[in-house]
């Protein structure tokens, strides 16, 4: 049994969830699963249809972005994943999609406002949109620079990656993360739903008011606070 088999299996299963949840079409998107003790992650191979994937086709990449094992090229976003894993030691899974509503907000270069309690059930923050990449970064190591875009945006907004597990990259698309690949995919589904509801809200009422702080805290704390009582 390969020492990487466990992360290949986890990455494979998580990638299959993307089309099932209507978060990707064709060969768009990717999910990875990391093992921080080994300093590597397993990620979808580039441009391979989801129906043709298997655990053994998941490519093993280290946190510098170098392929460790695999006959196929890894996702073109591998250096973004690598930098995030190298920087965020408590992140075990990363997902990147081009889901329609979240990507539309990213293309609009807008944060997703916290309009309702469904949003507050998951985070107390607007979903941030990192500014479009500057030319010198585009001309450099583009995928590595995308990772820096994400890290810099959260740092500038004083948001911890542990407290907010999703972001939009301006003019690009969403990235999400979590304790493992399945949680990263879960967060991608949540982000797409929040993006869709925010879009509809603005169609119903342009300049709708942001949810008031007392309701934000109530809904977040009842699910995630020290005295949370949601669920079993």
How are helices and strands ordered from N to C? HEEEEHEHHEHHEEHH
- In CATH's first tier, which class applies? Alpha Beta
For CATH, the homologous superfamily is named as Class II aldolase/adducin N-terminal domain
Number of distinct helices = 8
The description of the largest β-sheet is: 8 strands, mixed
Instruction: Point out poorly predicted stretches.
Output: none
Amount of helix: 40-55%
Remind me, CATH topology? L-fuculose-1-phosphate Aldolase
- The gross shape turns out to be globular
Describe the structure in your own words:
The protein has an 8-stranded mixed β-sheet, sandwiched between helices. It has 8 helices and 8 strands; from the N terminus they run H-E-E-E-E-H-E-H-H-E-H-H-E-E-H-H. It has helices spanning 5-20, 78-87, 100-107, 117-120, 135-138, 142-156, 181-204, 213-224, and strands at residues 30-35, 40-43, 59-62, 67-69, 93-96, 129-130, 166-169, 174-178. Helix 2 (78-87) packs across helix 6 and helix 3 packs across helix 7. It has one domain (5-224): Class II aldolase/adducin N-terminal domain (L-fuculose-1-phosphate Aldolase), CATH 3.40.225.
Condensed summary:
This protein is of the alpha+beta class and 232 residues long.
């Amino acid at each position: 049994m390969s020492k990487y088999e466990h992360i290949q299996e986890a990455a494979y299963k998580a990638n299959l969830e993307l089309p099932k949840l209507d978060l990707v079409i064709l060969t768009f998107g990717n999910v990875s699963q990391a093992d921080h003790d080994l300093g590597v992650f397993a990620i979808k191979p580039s441009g391979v249809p989801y129906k043709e994937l298997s655990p053994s086709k998941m490519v093993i990449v280290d946190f510098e972005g170098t392929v460790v094992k695999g006959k196929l090229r890894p996702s073109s976003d591998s250096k973004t994943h690598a930098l995030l894993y190298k920087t965020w030691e408590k992140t075990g899974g990363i997902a990147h999609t081009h889901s329609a509503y979240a990507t539309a907000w990213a293309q609009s270069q807008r944060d997703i406002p916290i309009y309702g309690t469904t949003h507050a059930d998951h985070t107390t923050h607007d979903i941030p949109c990192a500014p479009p990449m500057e030319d010198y970064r585009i001309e450099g190591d583009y995928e590595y620079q995308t990772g820096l875009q994400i890290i810099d945006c959260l740092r500038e907004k004083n948001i911890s990656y542990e407290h907010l597990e999703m972001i939009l990259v301006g003019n690009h698309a969403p990235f999400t993360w979590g304790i493992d690949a399945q949680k990263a995919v879960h967060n991608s589904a949540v982000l797409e739903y929040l993006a869709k509801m925010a879009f509809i809200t603005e169609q119903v009422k342009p300049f709708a008011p942001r949810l008031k702080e007392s309701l934000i805290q109530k809904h977040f704390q009842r699910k995630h606070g020290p005295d949370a009582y949601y669920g079993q």
